[in-house]
Amino acid sequence: MRAIAIEQFGGPETLKPVDLPTPEPGPGEVRIRIAASGINPVDWKIREGYLTKALPHRFPLIPGWECAGTIDALGMGTSRFERGEAVYVYARKPEVQGGTYAEYVVVPESFVAAKPKSLLLHEAASVPLAALTAYQALFRRPGVGPGATVLVHAASGGVGMFGVQLAKNAGAKVIGTAGPDNQDFIRSLGVDHAIDYRAGDVRAAVRAIAPEGVDVVFDCVGGETLALSYELAARGGRLVGVVDTPNQDEAKARGIDAYYHFVEPNGEELATIGALLDAGKIRTHVSAIFSLADAALAQEKSREGRTRGKAVIVL
Ligand SMILES: NC(=O)c1ccc[n+]([C@@H]2O[C@H](COP(=O)([O-])OP(=O)(O)OC[C@H]3O[C@@H](n4cnc5c(N)ncnc54)[C@H](OP(=O)(O)O)[C@@H]3O)[C@@H](O)[C@H]2O)c1
Fold this sequence. Notes:
By secondary structure, the chain is α/β, with parallel strands linked by helices. It folds into two domains: 178 residues, Quinone Oxidoreductase, Chain A, domain 1 (Alpha-Beta Complex); 120 residues, Rossmann fold. It contains ten helices and 17 strands. The strands form four sheets. Strands 3, 5, 6, 8, 9, 16 and 17 form a seven-stranded mixed β-sheet that branches. A six-stranded parallel β-sheet has the order 12-11-10-13-14-15, sandwiched between helices. It has a two-stranded antiparallel ribbon with strand order 1-2. Helix 3 packs across helix 4. The chain is globular. NADP nicotinamide-adenine-dinucleotide phosphate (NAP) binds next to helix 1, helix 3, helix 4 and strand 11. The site of NADP nicotinamide-adenine-dinucleotide phosphate has 32 residues, from helix 1, helix 3, helix 4 and strand 11.
């Protein structure tokens, strides 16, 4: 099968077109013929070797952790899907190797959900990783619901875009941060208050809206943004980060629950997200489409950190 793979960690030049054996599904696994693959910041982080402490890696390494396509082969003991069915998946496996920048991927069937009917395949490919991240970060612990105020940092990115909409759909009031060019975009997603993080003091802007602090801070930026977030959560509130791990001493001093979440594959949650998409309660936004041959360019654009919504590779 055609794929893009790396043989060593490094820059974009390490991404090379390759011809590799088509993977065979084992027991409990399905093979998906990929129509489109989502691009995520984790892809270039893996390429540069940043995740080697967290997960084992094996070369040749095909990057890419999400896709949409059709079920192409069924492993022993699978029962949820039929050949030809359109599906989408967050495809992170225990070892970083057989990813979705390829014609085929093999994944446990428990990771997979039916493609939302209202979405085209390339739109569906933009959903799983970012939407599951937001869904798990917001709802696996209490705090996001009617009457709650949620602050989403990087509301215009892939994860933040879903975070805003999922929190709104749950009945929360949402404050979002983004740069000047994305203020209208985050308003279109439903934020009640849009803050331009480049225009001035984010802390003061949030405090003006929520003087006691917000119930939940969802940090999709890390670094200095995480540092200023401790004091933006109300006492008894929650700070969930998906970039850097919150400091427990800071959290204790402020009386908040602060932690890092690493998104897990989950076909059932993905089906719930699909139902919300089909009901028109949330939507995706694909701002860039690349070919497989342009995977290096796609990753370098992602690395700039300016993506609005999502970018995808179409095969
Ligand atoms: N732990 C996990 O399981 C997990 C899962 C998914 C993602 N992540 C991580 O979460 C981060 C976000 O992922 P993503 O896919 O949403 O990234 P992304 O789509 O690349 O995010 C880009 C967006 O971030 C905005 N942005 C950049 N700096 C900002 C700042 N200081 N304040 C507010 N907005 C800012 C940009 O808006 P402007 O252009 O307007 O500045 C842009 O729209 C990445 O580091 C990713 O690796 C972690």
